[in-house]
Write a structure and sequence with these properties.
The protein is α/β, with parallel strands linked by helices. It has 29 helices and 35 strands. It is globular.
């Protein structure tokens, strides 16, 4: 049975599935250990080994469990979940967290401090009322709440400092007498009956003298977290024996929790034809090429989605400090990338001292900040754990290493995602490793059967390297005519070619005074968007009453210049400018109302019982998982050890739980409300597998494919979803909406006139088309040749048209239990009608997702038509067009007559 508190904490902290599974395992372990009582060590070990076969020993005098989670999955948040669970379920109030170094020590203190950006207890209401006391290695001697037994106390200590204190057989400072508490703090902690130790990055100090001293605390339980559950010895790698859950990097990549790593080389690259220095220079230059492309793509994504801009940086790994200094000198020279990175590079190594070291550390810690100039970091060794940046996108290894070490060390620090999840934009979700001279070795290493990582291969061509990708901000013609600027400052190149789309057209109002008044007018008009009862459509902006109100507001806000006040120059004609601006808004806007559909009364929902169609399960024919092994090879003796690994270490006593626990991870499925149905459906799956598999093999299949099977069950649940309400109310919150900015990436070579059909039609999205006369934007991108031809038709037959930016309609459809935004392809207005147009490939016309979008779009058009016709406007029609029906000889009316979709069909 799934613990309700585990489910509650998982939802409140938005835990990812490996974090949730870890919490579920901790819940089960606490039952086996009879927490909070102190159980016999050997009895507890036997109970855990029986249920978790890969777990063989605590490796300590007290019960200690290791959760091995890949970098970037979220070990610190998991610590917060563990503490929340132990505090709320078992009233455990004393925790001792060990950090491996000063960097992680400081980071943990920050992350456990309220009102910080990554506060681990956000969502845990009990810790809002009674905030845990944070006691550190710096303040434990003076903490005023040590004897306060009512609060949760979290101790955070740096093990490296304790290690230095115990050298030579000395006692650590924590063991020395404290006059403040009348005994040593160590003795105080050792007397606590509910002390739980959490060890972060435990592989870094597992056998250190400091940890041996800490072990004397004899805690109730220990929890270790690491991404590398083994230690290196002279005889090779020695795996931990107490790994209770293993979620390796390969799975994190496959599940999309981290960036997708890729290895990069040049097409036809021949290292024999180049000197080592020339290869280094080439790798650096190609790294910069990729870095600048990524920077443009990140800017574009931020504008399109309204999210924070991410500034990427490139990491260069040098051989030693001397080599790092030479690289620094090269990158700071005028000959490298025309001197563009002279002030954007830092060298991080032990050669810096004093003020230089302080400046280096400060810049390194702020490398994620967009206002910090650093875009290249030169480092001698791989950056240590704890430096958890999310904006590392390009790594240039210039240090000799074998391919296995190069993969493992290069990838680790750059995998974290800046937005916490993948964006769907390949280059924004990818980590690039520039490895021209090691390319084939790395590819071969990644292809080895035992490798957990699959690397993408990026091969740069000369044509690629000649083109520089740039971000294009596409503003509406209206915004450009009014001289408006983007809400969000974007760092665009200054040296754009004359034909580039960023050469914004001259504003309609030439003088600064007229521009100011026009912009004030537009600000007042935007306020009227949200008053549909007063201004139903843009046409109503021209009414004398509205004009008078706008004029009055503009006059009140306009601050005349001194010369105007003194009568030296004539005052502007505010009435004429307001009227001219209003007319421009009417002419260069299409009335898109904002429609809200609000349920009346109480809303009830759920899923009806049904019989699963197991045909697809039979067709998938899940193979029985075979044993997988880790290949561990000593670099000194070349001895090889094969160690069996398990994809899931969690054994469920009830087989149905493998499916149920994954189903309740979905936001639309509540365990409390649907438990009976969920176990019924899981039982049907179980019965199906048992018809041709043994119970043991069924267990293996369920454990290995639990997420895939849960996804299969949930997809069949969706048609049986029901919702009851007394009715719905349609509310128009805005009569019209301002046109949003769009953003694209392109280069000068790929800017084309829309009337020209490009040669390469297989990748239409790389082109930026211009030259329109009726489009409400100067530039547009098309996803297919059919879209370009449709634009030709619209230029001929429509009054005005455009391709909506993300968020323009705020129209959502339900797909697989989630609500996704629908972004129509085209909107076009004629003398009689406003069209929402959606070209689709002929073979996708009956695609279920296309039909789901169609249903919400048709309903929206019906609501919009009802509103607009009631206020003297035009009706809306939804037109779903097969791509092969779009020909230049077709008219918009002809297309509409054949392919308009109504609520009846």
């Amino acid at each position: 049975m799934i613990n309700k508190l585990v489910n509650n904490i998982s939802n409140r902290l938005s835990l990812r599935h490996p974090q949730r599974q870890s919490l579920e395992i901790l819940d089960r372990i606490c039952e086996l250990l009879s927490i909070p009582k102190e159980a016999d060590r050997e009895t507890s070990l036997a109970a855990i080994k029986k249920e978790f076969p890969t777990f063989t020993d605590f490796e300590r005098d007290f019960p200690s469990l290791c959760f091995a989670l890949a970098t970037g999955v979220g070990k610190t948040r998991l610590m917060g979940a563990f503490i929340s669970y132990l505090y709320l379920e078992y009233k455990i109030k004393n925790f001792f967290i060990l950090a491996p170094n000063l960097t992680i020590y400081n980071k943990l203190i920050t992350d456990f401090t309220p009102n910080t950006s990554k506060y681990v207890f956000t969502g845990i209401s009990e810790f809002v009322i009674d905030v845990p006391e944070i006691i550190t290695g710096d303040n434990y001697e003076t903490s005023s709440t040590i004897k306060d037994f009512s609060r949760c106390r979290i101790n955070i200590f740096n093990i490296s400092k304790i290690n230095s204190e115990v050298r030579g057989g000395k006692s650590p400072k924590i063991k020395r007498l404290s006059e403040f508490i009348g005994e040593s703090y160590f003795d105080y902690l050792s007397e606590l009956k509910d002390l739980v130790i959490l060890m972060d990055e435990s592989h870094r100090y597992r056998a250190s003298a400091g940890v041996r001293a800490i072990n004397e605390l004899k805690p109730l339980m220990g929890v270790e977290l690491t991404a590398t559950p083994f230690i290196e010895t002279n005889k090779g790698s020695v795996a931990f024996k107490n790994v209770i859950y293993d979620y390796p990097l390969g799975r994190a990549i496959a599940d999309g929790f981290v960036k997708d790593p890729a290895v990069v080389t040049r097409k036809d690259f021949n290292p024999r034809a180049m000197s080592p220095d020339a290869i280094e220079r080439l790798k650096l230059e190609d790294g910069i090429y990729l870095h600048e492309n990524i920077k443009a793509e990140l800017e574009t994504y931020a504008i399109q989605t309204g999210r924070t801009i991410v500034k990427p940086f490139m990491l260069v790994i040098a051989r030693d400090t001397s080599h790092a200094s030479k690289l620094m000198e090269l990158i700071q020279s005028d000959e490298f990338s025309e001197g563009n990175y002279k002030h954007k590079v830092i060298q991080v190594d032990s050669s810096k001292t004093g003020v230089q070291e302080d400046e280096m550390v400060e810049r390194l810690l702020k490398v994620e900040h967009t206002d910090e100039p650093t875009e290249i970091v030169i480092h001698v060794n791989m950056l240590k754990e704890g430096w958890d940046v999310t904006n590392l996108y390009t790594i240039v290894p210039l240090r000799a290493a074998n391919s296995k070490i190069l993969i493992e060390q290069s990838i680790g620090r750059g995998l974290r995602l800046p937005y916490g999840m993948r964006t769907g934009v390949e280059i924004v979700d990818r980590l690039n490793i520039i490895a021209h001279d090691k390319f084939q070795e790395i590819v071969d290493e990644a292809k080895r059967p035992e490798s957990q990582i699959r690397l993408k291969q990026i091969i740069l061509t000369d044509e690629d390297l000649q083109q520089k990708t740039q971000t294009v901000i596409s503003r509406s013609q209206l915004a450009q005519n009014l001289g408006l600027h983007p809400e969000q400052p974007i760092n665009l190149p200054d040296n754009l070619p004359e034909t580039a789309p960023q050469n914004i057209q001259q504003p309609l109002f030439q003088s600064p005074i007229e521009q100011k008044i026009a912009q004030l007018t537009y600000q007042e008009i935007l306020k009227l968007e949200s008053r549909p009862e007063e201004v139903p459509t843009t046409a109503d902006l021209a009414s004398p009453k509205v004009q008078g109100r706008v004029r009055e507001a503009v006059t009140r806000k306009y601050q005349p210049a001194q010369m105007e006040l003194e009568g030296i120059i004539a005052p502007p004609d505010i009435e004429a400018i307001v009227a001219k601006t209003t007319n421009l808004v009417i002419q260069q806007t299409i009335n898109i109302p904002k429609i809200l559909v609000i349920p009346k009364g109480e809303v009830r929902s759920g899923f009806r019982s049904f019989a699963l169609d197991v045909t697809d399960l039979t067709d998938l024919n899940y193979p029985i998982p075979s044993k997988e092994q880790l290949h561990i090879q000593s670099l000194t003796t070349n001895e090889v050890e094969l160690m069996e690994i398990s994809k899931e270490n969690s054994e469920e006593l009830r087989l149905e739980n493998y499916i149920v626990k994954n189903l309740v991870n979905f936001n639309d499925i509540s365990y409390d409300e649907h438990a009976d149905l969920l176990y019924d459906l899981a039982g049907q799956v179980l019965s199906h597998f048992m018809t041709y598999l043994s119970e043991e093999d069924t267990h293996k299949v369920l454990r290995y494919y639990q997420r895939e099977i849960a996804n299969f069950v949930r997809s069949q649940m969706q048609p049986h979803f029901w919702e009851e309400t007394t009715g719905y109310e349609v509310k128009i919150s805005k009569g019209f909406t301002a046109l949003k900015d769009s953003a694209y990436t392109t280069n000068a070579k790929n800017c084309l006139d829309y009337q020209s059909s490009p040669r390469d039609k297989s990748n239409m999205s790389k082109y930026l088309f211009t030259g329109f006369s009726k489009c409400l934007y100067r530039e547009q991108k098309f996803q297919s040749e059919a879209e370009r031809i449709l634009a030709l038709i619209l230029e001929r037959d429509a009054i005005k048209w455009f391709k909506p930016a993300k968020g323009q309609f705020q129209l959502y459809y339900k797909w697989h239990g989630d609500y996704r935004e629908y972004q129509p392809d085209f909107v076009a207005e004629t003398e009689e009608v406003i069209y929402m147009l959606e070209p689709k490939a002929r073979n996708e016309m009956d695609n279920p997702q296309v039909l789901a979008k169609k249903d919400v779009a048709v309903q929206w058009c019906q609501y919009a038509s009802d509103y607009m016709l009631n206020h003297g406007g035009k009706s809306w029609q939804y037109v779903l067009i097969p791509h092969d029906a779009i020909k230049e000889n077709m008219t918009l009316q002809g297309i509409s007559d054949r392919y308009t979709v109504t609520t009846k069909g």
